[in-house]
Design a protein that fits this description.
There is one protein chain. The mean pLDDT is about 95. This protein is of the alpha+beta class. Helix 7 packs parallel to helix 9 and helix 9 runs antiparallel to helix 10. The strands form 9 sheets. Strands 11, 15, 16, 29, 30, 31, 32, 33, 34, 35 and 36 form an 11-stranded mixed beta sheet that branches. Strands 18, 20, 21, 24, 26, 27 and 28 form a 7-stranded antiparallel beta sheet that branches.
Length: about 950
């Protein structure tokens, strides 16, 4: 039975709990109670919600969705719910969260849900499921909207701060009494979203996974008193953030019973005490987010003044004091005041510049600052609530109990008299995953329960290696004895820390479920060679990409979950060698075809608002289209996106036409009035500039444009756009001649970075080699240069501390060029040296950059997985011809260090299996198996 494909075929309306459907981080609960006299024979529910939803039938979780979308082109989900229904009373319940904020996976438009479909029973009943104001009930989800929730990262939606006191209980069940719920409200703007089309990819895996290790059970200690306050800064990551000042100004009176030098810990800020600047230092390597200070307090009242840069979208400012110090914070200079701090509102940049820019710190205590709205007093009870910062500050007592398995933990009773301040349980999942955690507990009334997620442990292996701008955690303020909680969206993690703070009773964990939320693929390809290290490097890439396949290819499931162009291309190629899936890339390209910014260029990450375009990523996508067509034969995707491809190219064409030779200016973004990123292009950003000059009329940038033109020309031929093909060839001819003459240094026999000819990077020479435009003499010079320079990618010769010549993402293009030039030994040495180094560090997935020391670097980053693809393509030897023909494959083996290999490479028609070994210095194929209808050539 097929889903209804448009709203015209039914009377469903977008519904919400109010008519505007606007706001930040809004949650709604929807219920539809139905009576079925007979046995359901068919039951299809079609549903779409902005931004995400969870579907429940009769109290059981069914699925989550939708896929990320451009609001102009939304996709709806279809659920076959027949087997979840029964004769009698049934309830369909939907939990919806509208992000209403800038993320790297959504575009704010309007909150709302729409659903339609029918249930048909054997009693000839037809029950409509369509949404309207009198067919569904709704309630605002106050439990998730009571407090301002900061974002999980600069790229993600909000944390969940769940106030159980405001929850409505088991609202998804049949037994729940919803008589006080209101009828749903039809939204004013029913046309806020474009025509709904059916989902084109499968639902996520939704499979329970096991916990590899209960790492530690850590009793909380309480050696200090903490006072705190919080200030929401909702503009911080929005596109209009430049319109606001980034200064948050606060003050308080501090009472001390005696004159004393008081040790105080705090988070970052500049502060003055009684007019004197306070200095401090980082507490320790374990507590990087904590500054130690000595406050010289007079007996009686002392004036504290401070300001802090709005480093995040919610300021959580903590102060930790020795226990029972007698110190009191008061906004009113009264010991029994109800207010602890005061602060100014978040000021517009105009307000700050007009009234405060030239005003010296610290401000005087009696300065009322009425010109900017005056001081806002903070209630003593309105404390900060950042679970990640508190995890970073926690102290622990010695362990009291150990568990070998999760089953041993479930049902264990943590006695309140043994865990007075609470406890943390640290779980290790073995590798980074994207998961839905669901926790069921008892004995938690009036406690706080935190779930914090991370990829990395601090050196003590008890704390996380915290990063201030990735507060990956959720908090539940418990009111009832029982808790059953799961987040609205999955969380990325290698480690999970569950913390129960200040329990009032004995606590028991009755269930902990972790459900995988990644894309469902079957591992089909494999690679097993005579080199164990390269086998493990291949497996690292496979593990990384399967982890980062969501409803699109994402860069990392932990920090961003964004679909970036370069990451997408690289991960698709690794997928070709391991899973052979085409639907996910088709969806990614569909989104990119919708992504043009105001200049017409493809956005670097999408769906996303604002000006976020990386010039060479926009060019690289054209080659991504070609690789997709080459391995899928999907002409329709190219035809549908052709206009977008040409519009994207036109921006570069205009830049090229500024010069007679057609070369591109890498510093276009520095021109007046240009709203660009820091550099004109990304290139290989983590290569030091003295190895890769990124200024002026540029070789690498121009050659990337040329390669995009070459890909576009091939695509034009495929879809029969002869006039476009002719124009593209003219540009290719002009640009090829300019690159090979203007950037060639005949004395050094290398290609240089720009017309100044001061530096010659490996990136410039690799790019020209990829383009295939150099003369035989030039190519010989390039080979000699790369063979000499790239013998070791680490600049210092033994580790990445001083940088690398080729970065993790650009390596995808470096490998392509090296194999095309026959520099197989350089390619394999690059893999073994750099990826082998990360393996020696204990990593089982590929790292974002060759920089294991920086806390923000992802340990499971898709754009670093390219060795997997090239090992299958060049060592196993499976090549799809340049002139696409899915009826044929070429076997071209290139290796210097492998004596034997066996493996498989997925093909749209089946599996290509190859096994070969060397015998007396010659390669012998043990077998070559191809799908029916496919032929092969050994070359």
């Amino acid at each position: 039975m097929q889903p209804e494909l448009s709203r015209e075929s039914h009377s469903a309306q977008y519904i919400w709990f109010d008519q505007p459907g606007l706001g930040r981080n809004r949650f709604a609960l929807f219920r539809k109670k139905i009576q079925i006299a007979g046995v359901p024979q068919t039951a299809l529910l079609n549903i779409f919600a902005d931004t995400v939803y969870q579907l429940f039938i009769n109290g059981e979780f069914v699925e989550f969705g939708p896929v990320r979308f451009d609001p102009r082109f939304p996709l709806f989900d279809t659920h076959d719910i027949k087997n979840r229904l029964k004769p009698g009373t049934n309830v369909i319940a939907v939990h919806v969260n509208y992000f209403g904020m800038k993320t790297y996976k959504s575009i704010p438009r309007q909150a709302g849900m729409i659903a339609w479909g029918n249930i048909l029973s054997d009693q000839n009943e037809k029950i409509s499921l369509h949404t309207s104001q009198d067919s569904w009930k709704v309630k605002p989800d106050s439990a998730n909207m009571e407090r301002y929730c900061q974002k999980l990262s600069f790229a993600l939606n909000s944390q969940m701060i769940f106030e159980q006191h405001y929850s409505v209980g088991d609202w998804t069940t049949v037994e729940y009494d919803d008589r006080d719920w209101n009828n749903a409200i039809e939204l004013d703007q029913q046309s806020a979203h474009g025509q709904l089309l059916p989902r084109s990819i499968p639902f996520m895996l939704n499979q329970e996974i096991s916990v590899q290790d209960i790492f530690k059970v850590l009793p909380l200690a309480s050696p200090e008193d903490r006072v705190s306050f919080t200030v929401p800064i909702p503009h911080r990551f929005e596109d209009n953030s430049a319109d606001y000042s980034d200064k948050i100004i606060f003050s308080s009176w501090v009472y001390s019973p005696i004159k004393q030098a008081l040790p105080v810990a705090t988070f970052w800020s500049e502060k003055w005490l009684n007019g004197e600047k306070i200095t401090g230092q980082v507490d320790s390597s374990l507590k990087r987010l904590r500054i130690r200070e000595i406050w010289l307090l007079n007996a009686g009242w002392n004036y504290l003044f401070g300001h802090v840069t709005a480093y995040y979208d919610c300021l959580h400012q903590y102060f930790a004091l020795p226990k029972n110090s007698g110190v009191i914070f008061s906004a009113e200079k009264r010991q029994k005041s109800s207010y602890s701090f005061r602060h100014l509102k978040v000021l517009t940049l105009n307000e700050f510049n007009q009234f405060l820019k030239d005003k010296s710190f610290p401000y005087l205590p009696d300065d009322d600052l009425q010109q900017v709205g005056g001081w806002i007093k903070v209630k003593r009870t309105d404390t900060a609530y950042n679970p990640c910062l508190e995890e970073a500050w926690d102290d622990y007592e010695d362990e009291k109990v150990k568990f070998e398995t999760l089953a041993d933990l479930i049902g264990y009773e943590f006695k309140q008299d043994q865990y007075t301040y609470g406890f943390s349980i640290l779980f290790d999942l073995g590798q980074t995953r994207l998961l839905f955690p669901q926790i069921k507990m008892s004995g938690v009334a009036d406690a706080k329960v935190d779930l914090v997620y991370s990829e990395r442990l601090a050196p003590d292996e008890s704390h996380f290696l915290s990063v201030f701008n990735f507060p990956l955690g959720d908090r539940i303020f418990c009111h009832e004895d029982e808790l059953n909680w799961r987040p609205i969206q999955p969380r990325g993690m290698r480690y999970l820390k569950l913390t129960i703070r200040n329990p009032q009773k004995d606590v028991k964990i009755s269930s902990l479920q972790l459900r995988a939320a990644d894309y469902p693929v079957e591992v089909k390809g494999y690679f097993n060679s005579s080199d164990p290290l390269l086998n493990e490097i291949w497996a690292m890439g496979q593990r990384t990409v399967i982890t980062n396949m969501e409803d699109v290819y994402v860069d990392t499931v932990v920090r961003e979950r964004g679909m970036y162009i370069r990451d997408t291309i690289i991960q698709y190629c690794v997928n070709l060698a391991t899973f052979g899936d085409q639907k996910l890339m088709q969806r990614c390209l569909q989104l990119y075809g919708q992504s043009a910014d105001e200049t017409g260029k493809f956005r670097a990450v999408y769906p996303n608002t604002g000006f976020y375009t990386i010039a060479d990523f926009s060019l690289e996508l054209l080659e991504g289209y070609w690789i997709y067509y080459q391995h899928s034969g999907d002409v329709n995707r190219i035809q549908e996106d052709w206009d977008a491809i040409l519009i994207n190219l036109e921006w570069f064409n205009q830049l090229s036409d500024e010069r007679e030779d057609g070369l591109l200016d890498a510093e276009w973004h520095k021109r007046p009035g240009i709203n660009g990123i820091k550099r004109g292009f990304y290139g290989d950003r983590f290569t030091p500039e003295f190895h890769f000059d990124v200024t002026g009329i540029h070789c690498y940038f121009s050659t990337t444009y040329l390669i995009a033109l070459q890909a576009a020309a091939k695509l034009a031929q495929v879809i029969g756009e002869t006039e476009d093909y002719r124009r593209l060839l003219q540009r290719i001819k002009r640009l090829s001649a300019a690159i090979t003459t203007k950037f060639w240094d005949g004395q050094r026999e290398v290609f240089v970075d720009n017309l100044n000819k001061t530096t010659s990077s490996v990136q410039a020479n690799l790019a020209v080699a990829r383009a295939g435009i150099a003369s035989p003499q030039q190519m010989e010079g390039v080979k000699q240069y790369l063979s000499r320079v790239l013998r070791n990618n680490f600049i210092n010769g033994f580790n990445p501390d001083d940088g690398t010549l080729v970065g993790t993402s650009y390596a995808f293009y470096a490998f392509d060029a090296l194999y095309k030039m026959g520099l197989t030994n350089i390619a394999e040495n690059l893999m073994k040296t750099c990826w082998g180094w990360t393996r020696v560090q204990g990593l089982t997935t590929t790292i974002e950059h060759f920089d294991i020391k920086t806390p923000r670097v992802s340990f499971c980053h898709g754009w670093s997985a390219s060795p997997t693809y090239y090992l299958s393509k060049n060592v196993l030897g499976v090549h799809f011809p340049d002139a696409p023909n899915l009826n044929q494959v070429d076997l071209i083996v290139q290796t210097d260090c492998i004596d034997a290999v066996e493996g498989a490479f997925p093909h749209p028609r089946g599996l290509i299996e190859v096994k070969w070994h060397t015998e007396n210095g010659k390669r012998v194929f043990d077998f070559i198996k191809v799908p029916k209808g496919v032929t092969y050539r050994v070359r």
